[in-house]
Amino acid sequence: MVISQESEIIESVLALGNHIGHTPLYELQHISPKKSVRIFAKLEWMQFGGSVKARPAYNIIKQAVLNGELGNGKILLDASSGNTAIAYATIGARLGIPVTICLPENASWERKMLLKGLGVSIVYTSKFGSTDEAQEKALELYQNEPDKYFLADQYGNENNWKAHYDTTSEEIISKVNGSLTHFVTGLGTTGSFTGISKRLKEVNEGITTIALQPDGALHGLEGWKDMETAKVPGIYDPSLADRFMNVDTFDAYETLKLAAKKEGLMISPSAAANLKGALQLAEEIDEGVIVTLFPDNAEKYSEVIKSLF
Ligand SMILES: Cc1ncc(COP(=O)(O)O)c(C=O)c1O
Fold first, then answer.
1. What dotted CATH number matches 54-151?
2. If you measure from the C-alpha of residue 28 to the centroid of ligand 1, how many angstroms do you get, rounded to a whole number?
3. I need a surface site. Which of 3, 9, 68, 189 has the fewest CB within 10 A?
4. 6-46+163-308: what CATH class?
């Protein structure tokens, strides 16, 4: 059912906030190389929508509903290759907001079926153009029919990083405040790194923030962007990183297996890459508390998982 009354949709969007975020901060007890270095990860698949992207998608939709840009029959339009599209789709289905996604045609079969099942209209773009081309297509559709669409623009929308500034960082602080020494995560839209680092630095400027990058343009870490070669997101603020580290895809896949066997977690390639970054860092420091994110679990990556086990 499409909720048409303005007050009803505002009520529904605010109520949905209870199911976004509030994810566990899980200690990796068996794979830290030293007892004096503790490593924690936010299990971000444990929320409505099933990934870290529920937070920015929800905040973008909430702000647009509150200021009247959505909820009046307008279609939410954006480019995404995965988690953000699924997050928009689940939230859109719940609130009766139609969603159109520009998606590179090489997205996995599972992604396409999930989005179709959730009622999304998909506009396919070339497999050679990645999400950069999908972004250009979304902009073109919007410019042709601005009254039909709300362009969510996750790469340039300040409500992306603000979601993490307001929620993810506060959840981390409430659990490890005082002891946290390092925060490390990979860059995609850069919303999670930007929002969390900004807030953590305000609380304690001594916390070291480390941004992770793939070791080249061609990599197997879905959700990550190589900032040297990709279109740089409008919200990206490189000055927030004290340091950059590279993670090799093969090493990430080995870490994925380790996390399954030693910690009981079946995580996604990008979550494993974050863990690999945290482990590399743990080798270098004598003591500390490292926090990272596990953006999603392995469920949507059957092709990768099949090749590993
Ligand atoms: C699986 C996965 N990992 C990492 C990221 C990167 O997060 P962010 O966009 O906040 O930089 C994303 C974002 O789409 C993702 O879907």
1. 3.40.50.1100
2. 21
3. 68
4. alpha beta
